[in-house]
């Protein structure tokens, strides 16, 4: 199936460092979402973006909906060990919550204490 | 709020048997539920979209006769893997969307690890 291009694939950083990851698509999306998945668990929603140019924060996390509506980034500031996990971007073509999501390949984050 | 549960959390079965996985929205009504499959070190791949009281919509390449989906109520959807084979071993995850409102997102269950021997 179709996927978004998410990068980087993995990151290994020192505790306290900032992290940035992004997703791009050849298609326009109406919604961008960022999820975190811990091993053996389902994804947990971190941030939802609904308007082009929108910049939203959730604690140390900040995400933006690209102006072209074809990309989004997620920043994590001052990383801590519990930030470890796999981060997925997801996009939706349709407005409303019933449209299906297209997921990126994921970014695996490892944080060294 | 917005808690989704799955049962069982893991299951091991013999090849040729059928396995049923339940997905429940515990504190909200979900008009739409989604079923995903995730292989190791890969992303989530949507299998089907399930609306309460109607037939599920399957993604291309997903066999509807093998993966039976029933969405009998606003809080329960089930996925039955029929005649399971080792290649069906995977992590199956459901999600649910709250009824109404444009900004109610998909909330995911904790997943079910299926191992077919």
Mean pLDDT of chain A: 92
Number of continuous helical runs of chain B: 0
Shape of chain B: globular
Helical content of chain B stands at under 10%
Walk me through the structure:
The complex is a heterodimer of chains A (113) and B (117). Chain A has 113 residues and is an all-beta fold. Chain A has no helices and 11 strands. Chain A has strands at 5-7, 10-14, 19-24, 31-37, 44-49, 55-58, 61-65, 71-76, 85-92, 102-103, 107-112. The mean pLDDT of chain A is 92. Chain B has strands spanning 4-7, 10-13, 19-25, 30-38, 45-51, 57-58, 67-73, 76-81, 90-98, 106-108, 112-116. The termini of chain B are far apart. The mean pLDDT of chain B is 92.
Which labels suit this protein?
A: 113 residues; mainly beta; 11 strands; B: 117 residues; 4-stranded antiparallel β-sheet; 0% helix
Question: In a nutshell, what does this entry contain?
Answer:
The complex is a heterodimer of chains A (113) and B (117). Chain A is mainly β and 113 residues long.
